[in-house]
Design a protein that fits this description.
Rossmann fold, alpha/beta, 343 residues
Length: 343
Amino acid sequence: MTVGETTDTTEDRPVGAGKADLAALADTTTRIRRAVESVIEGKRDTVRLAITVMLAEGHLLIEDVPGVGKTMLAKALARSIDCSVRRVQFTPDLLPSDITGVAIYNTERREFEFKPGAIFANIVVGDEINRASPKTQSALLECMEERQVTVDGETYELALPFMVLATQNPIEMEGTYPLPEAQRDRFMVRLSMGYPSEQAELTMLDTHGQSSPLDVLQSVSDATEIADMIRIVRKIHVSDQVRRYAVDLVIATRNSPELRLGASPRATLHLIRAARAAAALDDRDYVLPDDVQDLAVAVLAHRLLPTAESQIGRRSTEDIVADIVASVPLPDERTRRATGSEG
């Protein structure tokens, strides 16, 4: 259902993103999208969602079976931007200090020196994150939420922009550990690559047959430009009606009889941030309820825990969120119900 601009008035609105800002954002994101799509065939919606998360200052969790391009997507997005990138291969013997860093005693200077870990980068690609132990996975909690690292009582700020692009195999795969609920909640979006279409797979055989497109992928933006785009997205206007709609969706997950754990207040914040980025990508300086609807499953589903009955009935959290979105009235519908009007 499409909701028109009448749901979001521009009167008395604070100064937000202008046409020049949105034009600059469109130019930058188009270059990034084309660069990533030169590596990832036939996944335009997936690429758009990854860019949305980046502009919304979120972290992305890519979950799917092996071999469908999870790591390729993460590396393509990272290489398209000229910034510091670190890749971490998560394994059972990986230590928390390998990620955050460690203080080492310098015998010559007779003092401890901090050696930064892999997390000190603009984009951190964590490959197969659920193959590491829960203790190592938890090393990312402070980094992802507060964008800082604390080691031996000293706190170190992480440079902006900062984004974690993590891949994981489904938990049914051998040798995997489920991510803690607190860590899943810090990922703004979880997406699945899915198998490519027949034509996309045929094209892949041509483009990937002799060499990897990643080898020739050139950066088309830089950290400074991405930081500017993030500031533009922050200016996108969100009306009180849209905010209320997002809150209603999240509260509905907490009241759902099919869920034993609903979405957190952090989920509401992530949903609004992602909706701002989606609106900017659509060349709008305001958010529509449609933006919230379109992103609800991707932003909320991975944070929820279904009841035993839902699991027995093979009801996924994606199915449950989709039903909640269909049942929660849009702002205009809520107004009509409250006033008893059918017009």
